């Protein structure tokens, strides 16, 4: 398959590197230094699993893709950038299956604005982080991915599912992926902002009783909102958390992408995650006091981290 991966940092880089083993992958990333490093030396993938240096075409210039055609385009940019990325890529998306594996709500709806495109949504339980130009780290590896159609047919997605599996990525293509989407959404809407507030120290999410209580309160509020929206869960959203608490699995050092964003002073996906719960809770009359408080705190933290990063950059200059 000819696959365009939009956003090659963190999990986008991890998936692009794997898919490039069995497909013709082209990466698009607005980080010029990252794109240039991949072009020059390939993408280095370290961490969980076998280390890998993957070579594939990559560009930070949408004009270079204008005349290209792809079988699938996988969106892995920040949720707030989905609509802009789709608009900028324009004709490069013609005829491609558009798949979002991003965190948060609103991404599939943004892709549905592309006229006539087959649109799919899903989630992956794998995780990664951007280390630096040309280097990403697998944090969680070998976990399942699920996706299915939002607009279009299940059959249209079958080749992409086969390609994922051929690349060593356990994947299931489902007629209704929303049970998995909602479950991962609740996990992220709870654990990502809490991880950011705790400065990325993952142990604090499990070893402090008050934090455990907060997590449970947020999870219950999120589940109530999902049920009020008519949603369902393919698996228990907080199952992994319960396993860590019972010591069935060890505490990892991965506190979520939001903690990594805060550490860099970068925008987070708080609006598409916990913010979505707060807005829908207010609209539906579902009380979400814990989620609202955490949402407000992360909004403040996001601004503080951004300003600190700017100040530090000015000092270095």
From TrEMBL:
<dbReference type="InterPro" id="IPR050838">
    <property type="entry name" value="Ketopantoate_reductase"/>
</dbReference>
<keyword id="KW-0732">Signal</keyword>
<feature type="domain" description="Ketopantoate reductase C-terminal">
    <location>
        <begin position="178"/>
        <end position="302"/>
    </location>
</feature>
<dbReference type="Pfam" id="PF02558">
    <property type="entry name" value="ApbA"/>
</dbReference>
<dbReference type="InterPro" id="IPR003710">
    <property type="entry name" value="ApbA"/>
</dbReference>
<comment type="function">
    <text>Catalyzes the NADPH-dependent reduction of ketopantoate into pantoic acid.</text>
</comment>
<dbReference type="Pfam" id="PF08546">
    <property type="entry name" value="ApbA_C"/>
</dbReference>
<keyword id="KW-0560">Oxidoreductase</keyword>
<dbReference type="InterPro" id="IPR013332">
    <property type="entry name" value="KPR_N"/>
</dbReference>
<protein>
    <recommendedName>
        <fullName>2-dehydropantoate 2-reductase</fullName>
        <ecNumber>1.1.1.169</ecNumber>
    </recommendedName>
</protein>
<feature type="domain" description="Ketopantoate reductase N-terminal">
    <location>
        <begin position="3"/>
        <end position="151"/>
    </location>
</feature>
<dbReference type="InterPro" id="IPR013328">
    <property type="entry name" value="6PGD_dom2"/>
</dbReference>
<dbReference type="InterPro" id="IPR036291">
    <property type="entry name" value="NAD(P)-bd_dom_sf"/>
</dbReference>
<comment type="pathway">
    <text>Cofactor biosynthesis; (R)-pantothenate biosynthesis; (R)-pantoate from 3-methyl-2-oxobutanoate: step 2/2.</text>
</comment>
<feature type="signal peptide">
    <location>
        <begin position="1"/>
        <end position="16"/>
    </location>
</feature>
<keyword id="KW-0521">NADP</keyword>
<dbReference type="InterPro" id="IPR013752">
    <property type="entry name" value="KPA_reductase"/>
</dbReference>
<dbReference type="InterPro" id="IPR008927">
    <property type="entry name" value="6-PGluconate_DH-like_C_sf"/>
</dbReference>
<keyword id="KW-0566">Pantothenate biosynthesis</keyword>
<comment type="similarity">
    <text>Belongs to the ketopantoate reductase family.</text>
</comment>
